[in-house]
Amino acid sequence: MDQLYKQILLLFSIPIYAIIIPLEIILSNFKHRKFYTWKETLINIYLNALNSGIDLLLRFFVGLVVLNFFYNYHFSITWNPIVYWVVLLFGEDLLFWLEHYVDHSIRIFWAVHVTHHSSPEYNLSTGFRSSVLMPVYKYLYFIPLVLLNFKPIDAIFMYSFTQIYGILVHTQAIKKMPRWVEYIFVTPSHHRVHHASNVPYLDRNMGMVFIIWDRLFGTFTEEMPTETPHYGITKPIEKPYHPVHIITHEWKEIGKDLRKSRSLKTKLNYLFRPPGWSHDGSTKTSKQLQKDWKP
């Protein structure tokens, strides 16, 4: 990535590592809230390191090579410099919402994304709990941007920049922001809902920076005073600290479902229907659970 972009990202990301996370650890322990444990924090670091290694490799091969190919066929659009960056920010965030929605709606993509949701803890280090295999396909979502004459390197930079904001909302320390902020932007309250395994909170609040996409597309849910978030996934992992199982556990479950399927249609349904779908109703999707849920 361009040297200037690297310096900008370092300028904004270093305080998270050096100041904000240690401060949250100190304050949470001071208030006896224990947001962090050593095991969960170490597994978050481990998953982020794996993701970063794969991302560095695929950022060039999948990101720049593929995106540059499509950039050769971009529309002849002339952007004002300020408008360029504003539209890129909103466009990238909308495409992230789409990617995130797909990750929660199609099981084979959920098998990749579930790693990020698997921790029963919720703190700033959870933001680094990366979905290890996501770099394989995430850059492909930027193809519409490069066709609109946004440079591939700029699209990747904007994604990296907004991820910093996405990490900062992984906190229980901030309860509510001013009303206008809560209406436009993703806030810690909104993202706590997203990470909760409570039935009414499942598959809600998909945005990275702006919550407006969730409001527009019907995936928004407010954090409710009567419904305290319980973090993690609906079916806890049997070996949550196993270095391989933490990444592959949902793929193993898919394999079990495929082996018991008697038809090709059922096998495809287990791959491409939402998580929780079953041919015999033994397990349910989030929408099915929410339909039956009573406050």
Task: Summarize, please.
This protein has 295 residues and is mainly alpha-helical. Helix content is 58%, strand content 0%. It has one domain.
Structure report:
With 295 residues, the chain is an all-alpha fold. The chain has one domain (36-290). It is built from twelve helices and no strands. The radius of gyration is 20 Å and the shape is globular.
Question: What's the topology here?
Answer:
Blueprint: H1 3-30, H2 38-71, H3 81-105, H4 107-117, H5 143-147, H6 152-168, H7 179-184, H8 188-195, H9 212-217, H10 245-260, H11 264-272, H12 286-292
Helix pairs in contact: 1-6, 3-4, 3-6, 4-10, 10-11
| Content-based structural category | mainly alpha
Principal-axes shape call: globular
Percent strand? under 5%
Query: Roughly how many Å apart are the termini?
Result: 49 Å
Could you say how many structural domains there are in total? 1
Report the biggest beta sheet as strand number plus sense, adding barrel if it closes: none
The average pLDDT score comes to: 92
Low-confidence stretches: none
What is the strand tally?
0
Fraction of residues in H or I helices: 55-70%
CA radius of gyration is 20 Å
Characteristics:
single chain; 295 residues; mainly alpha; 12 helices; globular
